């Protein structure tokens, strides 16, 4: 069986809490484990067994590290296929964060340059919001309060196609369940982006931008975002609540509701390591023509 290497440049937009690091490791370790675990249960095992995943982390907050531009060019022997952004405690629309404007500028350049059109961009939570801002959308503080724990994400438009394909799961045919930890939301998507998911509180939980080579018969994603945290487990969410509830980030009512939701329906959390993780893998494995 031939091997296919998938290289991911992971832009680390935060550092996990000490309790999270002690149990689950850094965000580089958490994201790598999430991608490997969801790949291990990927429905098409013939494809999954042929994948060699390489994830390199870049601290864009403190060290302001970014991938070398040479590795973003087609033809480089170790060229990246995907740029993925993590979540963050920082506020995407607060431009007083010194790393924020540089990150937005980087994503805009990569997302609009023909030379890097072969690279897929994937944003998780804060990353979802940064992609929106970089490409001309709007992110604002949510007026409907926090979403923390597992929430039902309903399909919008082509949401079912991108987030489930033909895979069955606990979410049924009209939704998926994803761990959340956010209040800010993307109130206006960028031009040409389509909204794919929503919750009862917020109308934009996922977006897709099609690649120029995409066709109706063979849709190809250039950028895919998700407001939730498919990489989170109930334990990670509870560690965060252990700090944020006493710190006054949540009201007592919000804290109680978030605790109740952390484990989802059966205590195992959302579908991040199943259907949602598989959907992200399907997008990462789509072939984009290289110029």
Automatic annotation (TrEMBL):
Residues 248-270 are annotated as: Disordered. The keyword Signal applies. Residues 1-22 form the signal peptide. One of its GO terms (cellular component) is nucleus. It comes from Dioszegia hungarica. This is Cytoplasm protein. Keywords: Signal. Residues 105-235 form the Glutamine amidotransferase domain.
């Amino acid at each position: 069986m031939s091997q296919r290497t998938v290289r991911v440049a992971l832009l680390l937009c935060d550092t996990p809490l000490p309790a999270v690091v002690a149990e689950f490791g850094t965000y580089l370790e958490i994201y790598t484990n999430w991608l490997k675990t969801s790949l291990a249960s990927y429905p098409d095992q013939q494809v999954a067994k042929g994948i060699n995943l390489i994830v390199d982390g870049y601290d864009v907050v403190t060290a302001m590290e970014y991938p070398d531009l040479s590795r973003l060019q087609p033809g480089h022997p170790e060229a990246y296929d995907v740029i993925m952004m993590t979540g963050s405690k920082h506020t995407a629309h607060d431009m007083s964060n010194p790393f924020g404007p540089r990150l937005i500028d980087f994503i805009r350049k990569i997302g609009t340059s023909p030379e890097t059109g072969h690279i897929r961009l994937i944003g998780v939570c804060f990353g979802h919001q940064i992609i929106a801002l970089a490409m001309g959308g709007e992110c604002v503080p949510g007026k409907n309060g926090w979403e923390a724990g597992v929430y039902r994400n309903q399909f919008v438009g082509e949401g079912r196609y991108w987030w489930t394909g033909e895979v069955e799961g606990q979410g049924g045919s009209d939704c998926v369940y994803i761990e959340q930890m956010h209040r800010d939301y993307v109130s206006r998507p960028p031009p040409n982006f389509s909204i794919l998911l929503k919750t009862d509180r917020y109308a934009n939980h996922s977006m897709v931008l099609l690649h120029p080579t995409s066709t109706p018969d063979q849709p190809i994603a250039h950028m895919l975002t998700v407001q939730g945290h498919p990489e989170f487990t109930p334990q990670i969410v509870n560690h965060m609540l252990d700090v944020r509830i006493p710190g006054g980030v949540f009201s007592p009512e919000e804290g109680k509701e978030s605790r109740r939701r952390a484990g989802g329906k059966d205590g195992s959390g959302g579908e991040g390591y199943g259907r949602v993780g598989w959907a992200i893998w399907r997008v990462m494995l789509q072939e984009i023509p290289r110029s």
